[in-house]
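Section: Multi-chain targets

For targets with more than one molecule, the full set of components is provided together so that the structure can be written out for the assembly as a whole rather than chain by chain. Components appear in the order listed by the source. The example entry contains two components.
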Amino acid sequence: MLRISLALAALLVIAVAPFVVTDPYFQQVMVIFGIYAIFAVALDILFGFLGVHSFGHAAFFGGGAYVCGILMETYGVSFGLALVAATLFSAVLGFLIAIPALRMRGIYFAITTLFCAEVVRLVVTNVPDVTRGVMGLTTPMPSFPGVPYGYETAVFYYITFAILVLACLLLERFRVSPLGRSFIAIRENEQLAASVGVPVFRIKFYAFGVSGGLAGLAGAIYAPFIGIISPDLLSPTYSAMGMLMVVVGGFGTIYGAIFGAFMFSVVTEFFRAAAELRMIIFSGILIVAIIFMPRGVLTPLVEYLRRPSGKDKAGLVTRDEAA
Amino acid sequence: MLEIDELAINYDQVEAVRKVSIAVGAGEMVALIGANGAGKTTVLHSVMGLLKPKAGTIRLKGENIVGAPSKRILDLGVALVPEGRQLFGHLSVLENLEVGYARKFGIRFDRAGFEGRVAKIDAYFPRIRERLKQTSGTLSGGEQQMVAIARALMSDPDILLLDEPSLGLSPIMMDTVLDLLVQLHGEGMAILLVEQNARAALRISERAYVLDSGVTTLNGRARALLRDPRVQQAYLGL
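Its structure, encoded as tokens over all components, is:
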């Protein structure tokens, strides 16, 4: 009941936020929050659900942004079609990177994902005829029929959060499904999962594609919203940012990834007055959060809310009680 | 049913198993005893497809399964109960059983088939019946062992591989687990039982192999091995 109430409250907040926060700058911050949240949720599929530590997710985010930008700017493709194409591109890129990466273990896996992302960044940097290289690619603001001038940010806001809500609903449903439990089984003990018949490689392979596609979708919204993208979008900085969002919020929980994105997009704005010191202060907060709340800032709170009530506990016997 | 012939397995440069030959017939209970580090777990993992042997063959129902994926081996009717009652500790008992049914799933989970299988094995595990929704990591050691065996049975195996099922259990719980194995064997299931508790393993098995430093050095009727002075001296403390 509490979960449903919280979900409905969140939906209500999402629905009315653009009417309450009318400042255009802060509306843009909310859209960036939504885009980062989709990116973080995409990474959480691999990192949190499967325990696969991809260090190259910027390739999917940036790849999606570039495909969307090129299609819209160079070929005049509509925003909707460009979103679909960018998602498919990043999903295929995910499958391609998964093939070599999943044959590696531990640090070699991490290096392979990082290396693959660097290859994508170098390709984007070195084909200026298509991507404009380090000059950056301008991406036109899409036209939304019937939307008056000046309200594009609100449209981006609702598109972004509709995708985020849909992704979260699907993932939550997936998380409690038998297939979702196989993901958790792989995360907990890969060899044991394999020994009971869980197709470990196949699941990881598909997860890479889905995660890459969703990250690419986030990038595809980002490109026309920001208006200009550069190869920096494919740098390890963005991959690290995604991982930090997931870790700080609490991996494998979905809500943790969203909270991490909130920290990176909205909370950093509170320190804007500190100018150059902003990121130093924020980094300090992250370090403290990771040291004292290694399972994520929100996880202890959520576990407290989810603790069994007296009624729920009646039918169960814990180890201590049994002894 | 299961024939392991001249098996050799290396961990990098270390020879974990040098020359192991074991046969388990249909419906037979066979024990594999040996000291710590003799290579018992390594043998089971290679049968399950988790380790690739350096040499030798593993035939299951006539098919050479060396290099086959674990799923194929499960499909041929083998299931492993790993050492240390390894459960997916964050999942409930029922969810562990679902994962044990994993090889059956496609995009759609066969819920009716799963529930039918749970109902079928339910009678073996009265202690865990009321704990189905409990997080498996909070169960006692004996209950965890029962869940580990139940999870292996979810794939409806013909042969069960058990790795040290009595390890760390109280004597009463150990007897309960061994009684369960006798019951399963009595109903026609083949069992390959790896145990450090040689006396208990030899008492309930029909045949046994002794593994010493990666080599099967002795084999024969379990009761005969119980009386063998070499076994008595090395593994029974007599």
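The mean pLDDT of chain B is 87.
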